[in-house]
Amino acid sequence: MTPSARIQAAIEILDQVIAAARDNGPPADRLVADWFRGHRFAGSKDKRAIREHVYDAIRACGPMPATGRRAMLGLVEEQPELRALFTGEGYGPPAIGRNEKPAEGGIAPEWLENRLIASGVGQDEAEALLSRAPLDMRINRLKVAAGVPDLPEEGETLALPGAVRFPSGTQVNAWEAYDTGVIEVQDLGSQLACSAVGAQPGETVIDLCAGAGGKTLALAAAMSNEGTLVAADTDRRRLSQMAPRAERAGAQIAREVLLDPGKELDALQEWLGEADRVLVDAPCSGTGTWRRNPEARWRLSEAELGRLTALQARLLEVAAQLVKPGGSLTYVTCSLLDEEGAGQVDAFLKANPGWRADLPDLPLGTPRGAGTRLSPARDGTDGFFIARITKA
Ligand SMILES: C[S@@+](CC[C@H](N)C(=O)[O-])C[C@H]1O[C@@H](n2cnc3c(N)ncnc32)[C@H](O)[C@@H]1O
């Protein structure tokens, strides 16, 4: 493909990304993969260039652009060398008209930018939310007792023991260590969230929003496969992805429990007031993961954020009923919005005087309310809020 044809391909994909963001359709990475499947003539260099154009253009637009072409014109503002590729020849995009307007830049739609500012997120931090994430891995201590295993590339060891960083795009899934569960792909922020739980061998630990088990596997490793580890979620599809991952990782203690939304405690009766630790990795807006899903900025609405914050508050109350006296609840969101983080925990502590904040000792992060905030700019992680609270 010519460089111009790659730009036109990216514009076509961007049109689909915009339509999907509007209609709650598939995520951008799926649309990119589908486009490649339908256009077999695209070689590996074409694919790399097209993918980069698509993601760079998404990052270049704050609010959702009207069309893929306008998104790409937004990118031309940042990368003026692309202008020459709008030739109108062959499979390339038509020449840029004199009055054609690029999409608006910025960090996010205005209402969302305002919420970030209100949550104390500065310009540098907000911009870093749109940078590219490196590839972080966790060394699975169920497979490798200590040190860093031999890997095809040398990574950077990070502030948390067992965390190693590689450049974005490293093909770790082709490595034997990945196949055999010696390493797990997991952002350093997620690893810190698991470390904050402080799970110990022999304890009873409940991962209330376990999803496909990313954090459950880390908890199983922290517990050395000893004790009771409940992986609960309301999403059957996500939960069903855990078993093969757990098998690969050698995580034998994870026990899946499917929950009924609104009646979560029905399936968790046997652990009421019994858990040493509960992790609530709550469903959230994901503002802290824009490095990976930059189009998520266009999918979120104020109404959806309201629905999520109400669910988070309810899940905190549900989780609290599982914790035994002296036990702890770790509340995590991958968001930098206070209403999903510090605000939730403050409200919980006010309404539940028997609980107190118990700040985990993490090597990174900045205090925020009763917890800790991790951010891409300061900590090199996805954006997270992590708080641990203890029941008297
Ligand atoms: C941030 S994700 C969890 C990610 C997962 N812990 C991991 O590390 O990969 C939030 C999860 O909450 C689940 N969820 C949504 N509503 C829930 C509810 N009422 N009770 C329990 N889980 C719920 C979602 O299905 C989703 O898997």
TrEMBL record:
GO biological process, one term: RNA methylation
Binding site for S-adenosyl-L-methionine: D233, D281
Record keywords, A-Z: Methyltransferase, RNA-binding, S-adenosyl-L-methionine, Transferase
Gene3D superfamilies for the chain: Vaccinia Virus protein VP39 (3.40.50.150)
InterPro entries noted in UniProt: MeTrfase_RsmB-F_NOP2_cat, MeTrfase_RsmB-F_NOP2_dom, RCMT, SAM-dependent_MTases_sf
Cited PROSITE patterns: SAM_MT_RSMB_NOP (PS51686)
MF term (GO), any: RNA methyltransferase activity
Catalytic center residues: C334 (nucleophile)
Annotated Pfam families: Methyltr_RsmB-F
SAM-dependent MTase RsmB/NOP-type domain: residues covered: 102-392
PANTHER family: NOP2 YEAST -RELATED NOL1/NOP2/FMU SUN DOMAIN-CONTAINING, RIBOSOMAL RNA SMALL SUBUNIT METHYLTRANSFERASE B-RELATED
Membership in a protein family: Belongs to the class I-like SAM-binding methyltransferase superfamily. RsmB/NOP family.
Protein name: RsmB/NOP family class I SAM-dependent RNA methyltransferase
Organism field: Aurantiacibacter zhengii
